Amino acid sequence: MTAPAPSVTAQHDELIDLLPPHFRFGAATSAFQIEGAVAEDGRTPSIWDTFCRVPGAVDNGDTGDLACDHYHRMPEDVALLASLGLDTYRFSVSWSRVQPHGRGPGNPAGLAFYDRLVDELLSRDITPWLTLYHWDLPQELQDAGGWPARDTAYRFADYAELVHERLGDRVTHWTTLNEPFCSAILGHVEGVHAPGGRSLADGVAAVHHLHLAHGLAVRRLRAAARRPLDLAVTHILGTSGPATDSEADREATRRADALGFRFYLDPILRGRYPQDLVDDLAVHGIEIPVRDGDLETIAAPIDTLGVNYYRSMRTSGVDEHGATTDARGIPVTRNLPHGGLPVTGLDWEVMPHDLTDLLLRIARDYPGTPVVITESGAAYEDRPDAHGFVDDTDRTAYLAAHLAAVARARAGGADVRGYFAWSLLDNFEWAYGYDKRFGLVRVDYTTQRRTPKRSALWLRDTAHRVRGAAGRGAADRGAAEKREGES
């Protein structure tokens, strides 16, 4: 198997080659999407185990019961990661596996699994990039109120400390939360993710308590650290612009930006919620449930901002019938595609230039914040040949365009230090089940056979070219990042 034809990526190679040798190339996964073994070794149900049993909630009635069987095939998957020359692996820990009731003592068998995973990674000179929460709240905590309840934030801080006690001697990179927007808004307002709620008030409370959980965990991890840590939180972000130059569309864009962007970055990086967001929520009769001291806790300093990027939207303040308010008198805020752009297998528009704009905005509005692209990728209609190989030139071109967008942002002054493809493996893709494939590696779900796709081989060769033929070790990367941070 060879690298892609030059025509697929050549237009981006010159920019990609500007990335520094210590730039991180990695791949990302999450526990529920790949591990399986949902009832083994003491693991208890999470909200996603429950949600998968709701009729119609997940395409084809798919579940995460087996997924990629990573729980049993982990050494094979780490060896695969190493064969692709990727220097960083972003994975998440299953809260239900390591603390089955969401409180109380740890589960030795669950903790031992992540012990082995970390050791496997380090033995192959791959940096573990650990995410503590990727949406799989223990069901017992959901039954006690879930993220709309303040107590869940304190349970998360306990859990973070428990995992750090076991792995903190070897893991340096810790991400508290993955995409609070999805946990709170998709899970509690739009109802398309677990736990399937439909209350804006619950969603707003969940956002605040997720932020509080992050801040509490950062403080706990700093206090318990036995070595310097790189602490992060990951947000799914995009750009937004008005569909037209009308006042209604410009105002709708401001509202969308407040609710979908500044709601997440301002409290963590500025120690406050945007006042215009507070005013917008008041129109709905909703207050953010802030208590004294919360914002100081939430703004505990972090070392890296994780950015997950897939697409951006235009925003309109007019509904499909031409009205600017709904039946309750609430102003309309409607997201629209740009139109005329190539799309992925999910009909998501491919917009690498907006990634550049997004990164430059972060550099401008939140100066001094190092960024890593912790997820970026695309689902396409993969067609394997007789040997299981997927000649995914579409995904390869997507990765090349987005890496070039990162290089362009760096040239403009954005401090971006790595790019992790979503995902290492085809996997359980949440409400889409197994039909949508994002992986660099094809998984035959019947046999569990793994086959690297052309995109994986291209990313391998690109990482090798950027870092130089001699390669580099983890210590060299750390020293280089330290120098960059001091410059």
Automatic annotation (TrEMBL):
Region (Disordered): 467-487
Catalytically driven reaction(s): Hydrolysis of terminal, non-reducing beta-D-glucosyl residues with release of beta-D-glucose
Basic and acidic residues: bias regions: 474-487
Keyword annotations from UniProtKB, A to Z: Carbohydrate metabolism, Cellulose degradation, Glycosidase, Hydrolase, Polysaccharide degradation
UniProt-recorded Gene Ontology molecular function terms: beta-glucosidase activity
Family: Belongs to the glycosyl hydrolase 1 family.
Protein name: Beta-glucosidase
